[in-house]
Design goal:
- This protein is 59% helix and 0% strand.
- The two termini are 31 Å apart.
- It has 202 residues and is mainly alpha-helical.
- Helix 2 runs antiparallel to helix 3, helix 4 packs antiparallel against helix 5 and helix 8 crosses helix 9.
Length: 202
């Protein structure tokens, strides 16, 4: 299975995040695209909307990277980066907004699933990559599994949690209470000497 990203903008998005993301987070982002595309094909998602989904998946954790480590939560920083990327490449504002919502809400259970096709698919794909394989159905699973295996996990849970917590330690406003980053930060502060086992709030 050749790994493609829906078109020229998707390919450019992949080239960009490949330069800025931690390897584990990059692999996770590509896996999320493969999973989201698998789900999207079941809904006959195609054309510009499919390519926008690729951009959303590739950028969904871009807020953990140094170029996008701004004052806001990593999800919002990544969403702003994705929308700016699409705007720079002449994409319409309505698709840019859908991508923004998909990235900004991907850690918001019960909300992303009800905000439209792209936020729902990104959210479900993230869940699937972290174990909810029951969401995928059976059709095309062999080909999907083979594609996913090309992108090893590389201890993504630790890499992503550490990246989010490191930002929050520098700027606690990036991890407000009751948010996913806030939960990671609180768990880290409650046992900052912990070694191994990962962040219990992941």
């Amino acid at each position: 299975m050749d790994i493609t990203f829906g078109g020229a903008a998707g390919d450019l998005a992949h080239a960009y995040v490949r330069e800025i993301l931690h390897p584990a987070i990059l692999h996770h982002s590509v896996r999320v695209w493969l999973l989201a595309d698998h789900l999207g094909r079941q809904q006959d998602l195609k054309g510009a909307e499919r390519e926008a989904l690729a951009v959303a998946c590739l950028f969904h954790d871009s807020g953990t990277a140094a170029p996008h480590d701004g004052a806001q939560r990593f999800e919002v920083e990544g969403a702003d980066a994705a929308r700016a990327f699409l705007s720079e490449h002449g994409w319409p504002d309505d698709l840019g907004q859908q991508v923004w919502e998909a990235v900004a809400l991907h850690t918001s259970p019960g909300i992303a699933e009800r905000m439209g096709t792209l936020p729902r698919l990104v959210r479900l794909a993230v869940l699937a990559d972290f174990g909810r394989t029951d969401l995928l159905g059976t059709e095309g699973r062999t080909e999907l599994t083979e594609a996913l295996e090309r992108f090893p996990r590389l201890d993504i849970e630790a890499a992503l949690a550490d990246a989010v917590v490191a930002q929050a330690l520098r700027n606690p406003e990036k991890a407000p209470p009751s948010s996913w980053p806030g939960g990671l930060l609180a768990a880290h502060l409650a046992d900052s000497d912990r070694t191994g086992g990962g962040n219990p709030a992941f």
